[in-house]
Amino acid sequence: MQLAGESLSSLKLRLVSWNEAANPTRTRVTAVAAYRDGVACGYADGTIWLYDIVMPAATKAATAIDTDRGQNDFELYPKCLLSAHQSSITLIKLAELSSPSPEGYEDTLISVSDDGDIIVWSAVDGRCISRVWTPLPNIRPVSMCLQTMDYQSAAEDLLFITGEGSAAYILSYPSLAVVYEWQLPHAEWITAHAVRKRKDHFRSELLTCTADGVVRIWSYDEFALAQQDVFSRAASPTAQQPRIETIAQSIDKADVSILESIAGSEAELHHSQFNLESQFAALGPDQVISELVINPFNDDEFLAVSPAIVRLFASRNNELHELLRWRPQRATPSSFVGAGFLGKADILFWDMTGTIFSVCTQFSIEGGSAGIHMARGWHSDNAGLFSVATGLCSVPPGTPDSALSRLTGKQNMQTNVLVSYSSSTNAHVLSVVLPVPLSSVSGSANRPHENPEDAKSGHRNWLGRTMPFDLSMLWDRWLQDVKPETPITSALVLCGDRIAIGRGNGAVQIVSRAQLIRDRDAKVNVLDGHNAAITAFYEWQPAVAHKIAHQSERTAERADTAYIAGDQSTHSLLLSASKDLTLRFWDTLSGECLYALPTQSAPVVHMACMLESGKQILWKDSVKHQVLNRLLSSLVLAVASDNSTTLVSVSSFERIHVTAPYHMRPVCLSLCRDSGDLALHYTDGTKRYIPLSHLRGTAGDQMVPDKSERYPEISVNLIRSKPNNSSWLKASVLSQKMPALVLDVDIEQLQATFSRILTEQMTQAQMEQLVQSNPTLQAAVAVLSQLCLWGVSEELDKIKREFGMGMPRPMSLSMSNRQMAVHTLLFPNMNNASASWCMSSLLNSQRMLAVLMLARSILQGNEKKAVQMINFYVGKLPGQIGRQFKPLSLLTLAQYWQSTNGNLQRAARTLMLSAVHGVSEKQRRAELFYWTSMLARCGPKAVDGEDLQALTIVCVVAGDFPALLPLTGRSMVATLLQTQLEAEGVGAQLAAMELLSRGFSTFRAYLDCQAVVQRLVEIMVSITEEAGEGSGGVSYAAVGQAKAALQRISAADADVVGAGLERMLREGSLEEQRRALQAVGVVVQKQAGQLQGRVEGLAEAIVGTLEPKRATARRRLIGAAGVALQGLVRAFSWVSFDAEAQLLAVGGASGRCVVYDVRTATRTAVFDGDGTAPVVAVAIAPAGDYVASFTLAGQLSVWDPQPSALAMFTKALLWSDMQAAAHGSVTPLKTMTIPRGFLGHAEVPASALMRVARLQWTGSKTVLLQIQDASFSLSI
């Protein structure tokens, strides 16, 4: 799955500069989960960190925590930071998603925040798969479970979300579409829930526990929920009447109370998808159940966890039975926080102090008796630590390289992993436990301890592997590797080649793009003045040259000083706001602080100007126009974090107006058309006015419009930041919570920028000199250095250094989805040069595309080295890195398969074909199976988006490896291709033509070939006409694609194109005949070989369109027919036309020479010759008196096209009707046989002589035959 909702039509990459503010140990962990390679931790600030469990080097062994259990053999390493949630993470769940890998699945993480926001992430590389567009209303999520649908069903899985509120939500997974909103029929909110599929019922059951301690069992039809037509609450089956359920049983003096009748105890149930089956007062309101866990091995049993007690229940025959219970047995108060099943009879539960309890409900003693045995142990011996977040996950089997496979030594089995985060004032410990079920322990030495306190000495026998990690210590080491800088709190791309950087200590830096990306230790001028973190920047550029008053900071006197804008591309003012509540004006060229102003009571977070640089308003009077432009362009509005505003004037360096704080955010600033004042618009619709009359002065009095004239309509959006579409790089800070600097690089725009500067065949010396003098090229080389791989190939590093590239600074490549406001920041691994290529297939694809595009352009001065560098990344890189290299994402490459950027398209196709051929057959088969399954859901309709990319992948793989695609898949893909070809839209047609022609030999048996050719002809001819009217490059691209498609189809089957055109000419409508004639004229110009086998039939069909009886059709078609016939005559030596006699002579593979009268559209003669050798050249004598023909057998003959009576009678006997009978001489007038030496072997094909054999009449009775350098003449 790709980054959902974001178009990657333009190749963009994100670079991230890390800083010390990214330390996750400063924030409390609120949710944890394990996945195949490590652990996911959700934090209170809404961020999620993915930590991989890795094998450390020998020098890193000291970082592990020493306990009485020994030293850890593994350690954690941060993989990526996921930033999207705006509130604390409350739930994280591991789930599987089908993927085009040989294993067929991919680990995903479902994260839920406190405000109801839900996101599905990939645990492999952290990319966002899907997200709810609007957080769930009326709920604070506290419980989540996933129901997996039948694999044979096309419906998605169901995700249940419950919590504090009046509603529960059911969503589809992984798309996260809200399937059903269930308004609860009771007043209490749900504290815990679980779902189970009863084997003896056709419906599923939902178990819920509310805040009053009541357990309810609801039945529902999961397949009805999964259908799109029942997503509304209106669809509801008949509610069943609640039954009276009682429990008259007590187990081990349990406090399970007998429930009174529930008929009438609840209000009448609303009609819904859920039907109440049973209701039980399990624990009472004083012991709220925080977690319900279904036994996966026996769905009758479930665990109910509350802080003071853990109980095992069984629900049978609408009765609830308490089987077992456990209470805390420690002297110090403790609360249970979670529980789970390790096996059919093995239970694990734990408390907030880090104590883990392992129970076997059926354990055989040596004497054969069965009983209950319990053991207990501590996974962390650090005093004062309390578990904040815990979770037991059943992790699917992984590859031999996965962390769990290395830990357990098992590759094909699911593993239970308990993750616990414990914290105190000075310690943050993340523990990973691989518990062992008690039932698997055998022998007296490993028998569970009857006394729980005795378990301390023998916990290794039952608890399994325990790995505690001190995050504080590990993060200190990570900081040393990454070497973060002072936190960057604000950034802005300035005009020219500069970027303003604001840091946490109040420093302001103006650096070039190349310095920011490449030169970390370069000397940069620091603008000192602020003494607190920078919060916002704004660049002000004057639209016209005018005076700006400089006011001294110490005095209130003004001194008029001329400030000429000069070169607007480099000269501007920079406004910086800081947490010290000041606003400073800087000269971007000199670095001088021109003035400082106090702002509001809170830091400024956003600034905007009424008129952006380069914009002017148009009004009727020129004086009014100039005054209004000067005034509005010099006003900058600063918005503070408390929603107060300050209007400042850049021309006078003073505060014009200040508005008090407000509880709503300002969203717009507009000019009042009646009064000429400014109006602030807030989210609740409130308006605040800022008067401007005192600023207009005398000229302003003249600007007051009359009743018939109003001020122009001007407004500025205060929510969106200042657009900067002209630059290939955008710099910003991710968020104030985690102020990492992100650089968005548009690779296409960057490549286009410096490709206009570089020239072909530039020498290396010229290239180096140009790079040193051009900042844009310096930045481009710096970007390429970041993308390239260093320290793996000495040969490759040498090539890069020769062109000015150097080792990159510690920045990481990351991903983002702007439409869903999701950011995935991959953590840089400075100790492993290849680590960045072992994380994300999607990122590897985009990175490889960028390397190919930039390397080809930057290294064009030395094509040989450019080819070496590209070949390394295309062919050798996976082998250099090893099996951990993430293969390229075919889905990402498929998005650029039809890119309008030629360089990007070529790079994408090169990489995609290389990726397809570079993997194993098992991987190719997995890709085909996955993407074919995706297409099966589309149905016989035109596809777009990800479905079109899936179609591209299937066609490319099946085109080169047709045996891997089953017959049913070929039929489905062929139907989709033909449907796509008929769809509207040039984009869909371009893709269909390309893919269909590429895989034509694979899908031919399932295509209507005649309809395909007819459609290609229609597109080619109709768009050609549109292109002639100035429709632009899109139409010409479609014409070229149609021609190329016809050529590839002809290469696969030479007879298809000609047969299709011939059928259109014979059986088509008048419009279809016209298109076919135009197509013949177009095709024979450059791709005449496509029609070689159908020349005889095409010529006869063309002549047939000129039937005199169809006078109207003849007039409309004669022009196109003439062009088509002229094309045939020029392209094929066995076609000849005499304009004076209006005769057309056609030879061919049949061995006959047919003569047509174009005026009557009939045959006039048929010359059979010997009938065994193809006719490869014909010529008509002047005035049509004679026809000469030359065959592959070497026979040169001259024929009389005017028949005698005997010849007419003989031919009539050979043809069924006189009208169709061909008239001509039965035997040639004269023949001559050319020696075989000039023809070579007898098996020489006609296509070989087509280029060398030519007939020409040199007189009225002499014909000349030329074969290469030899010539022969024959006279009558």
Descriptive report:
There is one protein chain. This protein has 1276 residues and is α+β, with helices and mostly antiparallel strands. Helix 7 runs parallel beside helix 11 (841-858), helix 9 (775-787) packs antiparallel against helix 11 (841-858) and helix 22 (1054-1067) packs parallel to helix 24. It is built from 27 helices and 62 strands. The model is unreliable at 1-8, 58-71, 228-270, 364-371, 442-461, 544-569, 1024-1034 and 1215-1224 (pLDDT under 50). The longest helix has 21 residues, at 1111-1131. 26% of the residues lie in helices and 30% in strands. The strands form 15 sheets. The protein has a 9-stranded antiparallel sheet with strand order 2-3-4-5-51-50-1-49-48, sandwiched between helices. It has a 4-stranded antiparallel sheet with strand order 6-7-8-9, with no helix packed on it.
